[in-house]
Amino acid sequence: MGSVDVVIVSYNSAKTLRSVVEPLAGEADLSVTVVDNASADHSVDSISGLRATVLRLAANFGFAHGCNRGSEAGSAPFVLFLNPDCRIDPTSVRKLAAVFQQDSSVGLVAPLLVDGTGELDFSQRRFPCLRSTFAQALFLHRCFPQSTWVDEAVRDPDAYRRQRSVDWVSGACVLVRRSALERIGGWNENFFLYGEDIDLCARLASFGYDVRFEPGAKAIHQGGSSAPRAQLLPTLTESRLRYGQLHFGTTRAATARLGVAIGELTHAVLTTKGRQWRRGHLSGFRVACSSIPTSPRPPASVPPAAVSQQ
After folding, report:
1. Residue 168 phi, psi (nearest 5)
2. Pairing assessment for the beta strands 30-36 and 164-165 based on DSSP bridges
3. Over the stretch 234-290, which tens digit does the pLDDT of each residue have?
């Protein structure tokens, strides 16, 4: 098996980072790079003594930006992108890499994801489309929970018991063939957070690469350790609109924007999660009703990273 570069983009992840890095840092065929997105909690101090390269970025330009800086620091044929709250053992990493050895058409492969209690995470997804956007906005997924057209998530448990090709997968833990990643130009840094995994899989597919799910490998995804999800709802909305701008035609993107706006408004009115979530959805509605900038973080130049070896 070829060697693997492991890239972990960290932002205020002091509570979980060491448990993610430690199982991988001592393996001869794995090279770990932690990209710190200008954390305020001294996250990288938590991995002191572990064999890892640390890139300290001067500012947070988003998850995709951090992934690209991390992958550029290595040269292994495969790159594992791992969230700082997602744990995977070396054996599972090698099982993912074996998929590339077996099939040269695969550009990205993802493991089975479970949460901290062992419950299945529905990490396989269908590409966004207008009918699912409006169905979600109008809560039709609750009226027809078994219908595939109302939801992007693949919720059939049988789909998680076998290796299969999928539209896209959660970016919490993905192994990417470096040659494929370089061919498509890396992660799209126009996405600050959310949507970059959909975009990555869509661009790989457009270049003829297969996106594969491998249940023989497993990762534990705690989820949401960096910030409350309600606070990120406007960012999620912006990323959904940005995906439409990049992958839909003008008319379809405008229709999708309408569906997203309706969804944020209906969820703001009907949410039972409290005031914070209501405010988050209302902020998302305002984003959907405004113009989306070409780039979410348009610095004239990116400050160099400070590199250190642990």
Report:
1. -155, 165
2. unpaired
3. 999 999 999 999 999 999 999 999 999 999 999 999 999 999 999 999 999 999 999
